[in-house]
Specification:
Elements: E1 12-14, H1 22-25, E2 28-32, E3 38-42, E4 53-60, E5 63-77, E6 82-84, E7 87-89, E8 95-98, E9 103-109, E10 112-119, E11 122-131, E12 136-143, E13 149-161, E14 176-178, E15 183-186, E16 189-194, E17 198-211, H2 213-217, E18 223-236, E19 241-248, H3 262-284, H4 293-305, E20 306-309, E21 318-321, E22 324-325, H5 332-344, H6 349-360, H7 386-401, H8 404-423, E23 430-431, E24 438-439, E25 453-454, E26 457-458, E27 465-466, H9 467-486, H10 492-504, E28 519-520, H11 524-527, H12 536-539, H13 547-560, E29 562-563, E30 566-568, H14 585-591, E31 597-598, H15 600-613, H16 616-620, H17 624-629, E32 641-642, E33 650-651, E34 655-656, H18 657-672
Helix pairs in contact: 3-4, 4-18, 5-6, 5-7, 5-18, 6-7, 6-8, 7-8, 7-9, 8-9, 9-10, 13-15, 15-18
Protein name: Glycogen debranching protein
InterPro entries: 6-hairpin_glycosidase_sf, 6hp_glycosidase-like_sf, AGL/Gdb1, GDE_C, Glycogen_debranch_N
GO molecular function, one term: 4-alpha-glucanotransferase activity
Length: 680
């Protein structure tokens, strides 16, 4: 298929990658359904996480995510041999079947995962994607040998929250299966499987002891049973593509009609949308045309996090951002940090507008929601920085789009944020009138992005005056000055307060020349901690420090925190430093902000570094590690965190919105000039 814009192909593995199963099992592909649901799996089609499945449905979009279609198993039957296509890892650590022995390549076509198998002189290509029009997962098979072949397939299902492994057998008793229509109803979710060029039969047997190696690494339950609901057979002729469609439906007969070549049409539609995403981004940012494949892959990766949010009848449709797969829903702080790169950097201005207006309507006492619980309960507001990131995102939106009508709609909400910080609001958040610095109450509740807790207590006790809050406040005042000017509003008060904060911020400058204090007037253990928060005083608050002080920050961060994949959350010289993010939840929570590397901060370091060096090539080379990383965890995307110690293994969510967003934002900042800050 010829394309105006070739789809990026930064991820490809050949036959040598599949000799031993453990390494390729650790590489995962993920696809978004566009409403909070997703598909995921490994290179081997095995299940290494409890979150892997071909149909994790958002039953209350964008949350309520429920595992439904788990996986498929398949064999080629050519009259002489029975060749496995898939692999399973079992509780006794054995592998059976061992389809990886016949796997000769895997690659991403855009974001679509593609497997190729060879036996004798024959080649079979397998693809998986999600068709939003059909509301279903498509599994396709295409082979080029002169002879026909038979495929034998098994389909496994379950019904549970995507966070919780079922102890025991899946709810077979509540499972209704109809062979004639391929209809399945289990636990209140209804779906149907279609095999237009094959036959389908009911199975209804429980298969036990699937092994989740990644859950064992995380100190969690690592085995589960699934229901084998259907089996199928497909006769495949040379050059013919056959597909299986598993779609949401209300009844066994409520199925979309399928054209004869529906599989190829569906695949073409998926890939054309990928091409449209690239065209949109390049139309807004022509500099992207000359960038390498891995950057274009991030443009596509950004789309995975941007999902629909249902709107009341008659209301304008809106979008939201999933903070990370598979553990996060939509978080206010993460959304605002990621939005410049995810949406403005990819040219999706209308979606950015809808997100900003939605969150503006959710402000409470000037505080943006921290996150929306997956159980559908009221949003939680335990954050001191999300509102300041919101002001920055509105400013960036205005600079990018010149959509002053939207800024006019947002302006009352922005004023409410500024007034709340001045007067004092939830959790003791306020601007100290004596020095213009932002402070929080002396609570164990973590209110900054360093928000890990154990037994309800903050691991990093950053109450008092955290450095990044005052830096973001300074940046917010600059943003409001710019916005007010464009709306012909009086900006005098913002400029006056900016000068007070600039003067008060001198307290953060360390006399020993090691950058900035991390926290003032809080836990004594934190005041001299070398953490990455100080870099935001350069990337988000231009003009807050003088050149000598900025260089001191850059040198300190470079010497103590910089890695090829991001910034450490604590210097290795600190006695509290933990270089590995692994083990059971308590161990991981304790290490989360005590040395673990965060990818999103690398973009902010790059923006700060570039302002001083002016060297485009040298600054872009900071991302060489992330470029290579696209092929090692969540394929084509960027993980949440990495170990602080070399070799910096990827950890946490394999796909994280702000990791992708901040990388894209910083690359465009370097190539096109700053989109934010205090410049007009």
């Amino acid at each position: 298929m010829d394309r105006d814009i070739p789809l990026p192909a930064p991820v490809r593995f050949d036959i040598t990658a599949f000799r031993e199963p453990e390494t390729p099992e650790g590489r995962e592909w993920w696809l978004s359904m566009g409403n909070g649901g997703y598909l995921s799996g490994t290179l081997l089609h095995s299940l290494s996480r409890s979150y892997h499945g071909l149909g994790i449905l958002a039953t209350a979009p964008p949350v309520g995510r429920t595992l439904h279609w788990v996986k498929w198993d398949g064999w080629i039957e050519d009259g002489e041999s029975r060749i496995p296509l898939t692999s399973n890892h079992w509780g006794d650590l054995s592998w059976d079947p061992r389809g990886f022995l016949y796997l000769v390549s895997f690659f991403l076509e855009g974001r679509m995962p593609v497997w190729q198998y060879r036996w004798k002189n024959r080649l079979l290509t397998v693809r998986v994607w999600y068709d939003s029009a059909l509301r279903g997962t498509v599994l396709s098979f295409l082979h080029d040998s002169p002879d026909s072949l038979e495929l034998a397939l098994n389909f496994y299902v379950n019904y549970r929250d995507h966070h919780g492994i079922i102890q025991g057998d899946p709810p077979e008793a509540s499972c209704r299966v109809e062979e004639e229509t391929g209809y399945l109803s289990i636990g209140g979710i209804s779906s149907a499987v279609r095999v237009p060029k094959g036959s389908l039969s009911v199975n209804r047997s429980v298969v036990r002891n699937f092994f989740y190696s990644r859950e064992r690494e995380r100190g969690l339950a690592d085995r589960e049973n699934h229901l084998l609901a259907f089996s199928a057979r497909i006769s495949l002729h040379s050059g013919q593509e056959a597909g299986v469609l598993w779609t949401e439906t209300s009844s066994g007969r409520d199925m979309p009609s399928l054209k004869r070549n529906w599989t190829s049409l569906s695949r073409q539609a998926f890939l054309e949308r990928e091409e449209t995403l690239l065209k949109t981004a390049r139309g807004r940012h022509p500099c992207l045309e000359s960038l390498p494949d891995w950057v274009h892959a991030l443009i596509l990766a950004a789309d995975s996090f941007i999902v629909d949010r249902p709107s009341p009848a008659g209301a304008e449709s809106s979008k939201t951002v999933i903070a990370g797969y598979p553990w996060f829903g939509d978080w206010g702080r993460d959304t605002m940090i990621a939005l410049p790169g995810l949406l403005l950097g990819t040219g999706r201005w209308n979606d950015a507008r809808s997100i900003l207006l939605f969150f503006a309507g959710k402000l409470k006492d000037g505080i943006l929601p921290n996150y929306f619980p997956e159980d559908g309960s009221d949003p939680l507001y335990n954050t001191a920085d999300a509102s300041l990131w919101f002001v920055r995102a509105c400013h960036l939106y205005g600079r990018s789009t010149r959509d002053y009508a939207a800024l006019r709609l947002l302006y009352p909400s922005l004023l409410s944020v500024m007034e709340a910080y001045r007067s004092g609001t939830l959790f003791g958040i306020r601007v100290d009138p004596s020095d213009g610095l932002v402070q929080t109450g002396s609570s164990d509740l973590p209110l900054t992005w360093m928000d890990a807790r154990i037994d309800g207590r903050a691991v990093t006790r950053r109450h008092g005056k955290p450095v990044e809050l005052s830096a973001l406040w300074f940046g917010a005042l600059a943003s409001m000055t710019w916005i007010a000017g464009r709306l012909r509003e009086d900006s005098t008060v913002f400029q006056m307060e900016q000068e007070k904060t600039r003067s008060g911020f001198r307290k953060f400058v360390r006399e020993d020349g090691h950058g900035l204090h991390d926290v003032l007037e809080g836990d004594p253990a934190e005041i001299n901690a070398i953490r990455p928060n100080q870099i935001l005083a350069l990337s988000c608050a231009e003009g807050l420090l003088d050149a000598r002080e900025e260089i001191s920050v850059l040198e300190t961060v470079t010497n103590h925190l910089l890695t090829p994949f991001g910034l450490r959350s604590l210097s290795r010289t600190d006695s509290r430093y933990q270089g590995t993010y692994a083990g059971p939840p308590s161990a991981r929570d304790n290490a989360y902000h005590q040395g673990t590397v965060w990818a999103w901060l690398l973009g902010h370091f790059a923006m700060a570094s570039f302002r001083h060096s002016g060297n485009i090539d040298a600054t872009l080379s900071l991302f060489d590690g992330l470029k290579s990383h696209l092929g090692e965890a969540g394929l084509g995307s960027i993980s949440e965190v990495f170990d602080g110690d070399p070799p910096h293994l990827p950890r946490g969510c394999p796909l994280q919105a702000w990791s992708v967003g901040c990388t894209l934002e910083s690359i465009l900042h370097i190539l096109e000039g700053p989109l934010s800050g205090t410049r007009s």
